[in-house]
Specification:
46% of the residues lie in helices and 19% in strands. It has 18 helices and twelve strands. Strands 2-1-5-4-3 form a five-stranded antiparallel beta sheet, sandwiched between helices. A five-stranded antiparallel beta sheet has the order 7-6-12-11-10. A hairpin with a 3-residue loop joins strand 4 and strand 5. The protein folds into three domains: 170 residues, Beta-Lactamase; 117 residues, Beta-Lactamase (2-Layer Sandwich); 64 residues, Arc Repressor Mutant, subunit A (Orthogonal Bundle), CATH 1.10.10.10. It has 398 residues and is α+β, with helices and mostly antiparallel strands.
């Protein structure tokens, strides 16, 4: 997989972490892949430094516990890592020379048992209550992380922060209050709660508008349905997996892209189990219903439109140039981009020349990184309530 593709996959997996039980495991694997790493760990410590949560990539449970234990008991290098500014990315070689690093307890008890040496660390979030650490490692004998690797991790940090905030909001949501329903109505994403029979128990304002248009997603006598029979079957299988009726790919829930009748971009739907306690069932807006699954709906058409307008505003691109930039972001080259847009490769090349001039980059890989990095402003508000109106070098080709 090309690096640009790996970065895109990592961003996608990061944003889906709050919605699936194995979300952080998948995201960590994708992050490690984007960074050319064989090991990885996400560790959450509470105020007393006790590990509250840990997920790892290509590490045994014993290795994960060992790493978390070194962090809990404190060590020379771990204190340096905790003192780094939140969001800053650092190779371990930038914190200590290799010879000194090889003598630390952090390395000998936490890293050496993994068969790794060089590491890349970041703390995406630190509060008085929580300290969150993420690091990836390369096996002993491999080269150190370079400036491009550091840039990739920095690019992923705002996406990590957004996913952590969304996960926190979902975990902290008190569904016993009518105010929760009002807050959900303000989300840009569509949100639907369904019971075991796929009957809709609650749909926020965005989801209700999608259902009312019956464009890709609707309701029939059996409950929520997609625009075609195959997509409906898949969607209902994913919902059924959330109540233990069936298991899809080994995990409850999953993702599906539902086509629309008019050929516009599909609706992306993430399905995840919804676990409500008895005390949470009797709400004014859910009645006595028992929701078993939550559906998060992303309108890819709107997402594409917002991205395009953002590109045009930030870089002064024309509509055609923004279209090309969006296609190049998919990472499969000029020919594929031109085919999707219905233009020749020569026209794509000409647009790219203008885009390079306006953005100041020289290569397509640099353009992809720039566009992804620039999405911080968009992703940092993902899932936030709507605001009222008024809140708003020489080019070359490769």
């Amino acid at each position: 997989m090309a690096r640009a593709d790996a970065i895109l996959e990592a961003v996608k997996q990061i944003h889906e972490t709050p919605l699936t039980p194995d979300g952080w495991a998948r995201a960590l694997a994708s992050i490690a892949g984007a960074l050319g790493s064989e090991r990885g760990i996400l560790l959450v410590q509470n105020a007393s430094r006790k590990p509250e949560y840990a997920v790892s990539f290509e590490m045994t449970s014993e290795q994960t516990v060992g790493f978390a234990g070194v962090a809990a008991n404190g060590s020379d290098l771990w204190e340096t890592i905790r003192a780094l500014p939140v969001g800053s990315v650092a190779p371990t070689s930038a914190l200590l020379p290799d010879r000194e690093y090889a003598r630390t307890r952090f390395y000998n008890e936490g890293v050496k048992p993994l068969g790794a040496f060089y590491g890349l660390v970041v703390s995406p979030l630190s509060t008085p209550e929580w300290f969150i650490h993420l690091s990836t490692g390369r096996l002993l004998g491999r080269q150190d992380y370079d400036a491009e690797d550091v840039a990739v991790m920095r690019m992923l940090v705002p996406h990590l922060l957004t996913a952590l905030h969304v996960a926190h909001r979902l975990a902290a949501a008190d569904l016993r209050t009518a105010a929760a329903g009002n807050a959900l109505d303000q989300l840009e994403a569509g949100l639907i709660l369904v019971d075991a029979a796929t009957k809709i128990l609650f749909a926020n304002r965005t989801a209700a508008a999608i259902l009312a248009r019956n464009d890709g997603l609707g309701v029939d006598r059996d409950g929520v349905c997609a625009g075609d029979h195959h997509a409906t079957r898949v969607l209902r299988r994913l919902i059924a997996s959330c109540v233990g009726v069936a298991i899809v790919n080994g995990w409850p829930g999953g993702r599906i892209e539902v086509p629309r009748t008019d050929g516009r971009h599909a609706l992306r739907i993430a399905v995840a189990p919804f676990r409500a306690e008895e005390a949470q069932i009797g709400t004014p807006w859910l009645g006595a219903a028992r929701p078993v699954a939550i559906l998060i709906i992303t309108d890819l058409e709107r997402e594409q439109r917002v991205r395009k307008e953002d590109f045009r505003y930030r870089f002064g691109l024309t509509k055609a140039e923004a279209d090309v930039a969006l296609e190049i972001l998919k990472g499969d080259g000029r020919d594929a981009a031109g085919a999707r847009l219905g233009i020749t490769s020569a026209t794509v090349r000409a647009h790219l020349s203008h885009i390079f001039e306006k953005t100041g980059v020289r290569r397509q890989a640099e353009l992809v990184r720039l566009l992804l990095e620039g999405e911080r402003r968009l992703t940092s508000t993902a899932g936030q309530p709507r605001r009222s109106v008024g809140d708003p070098s020489r080019p070359s080709h490769d």
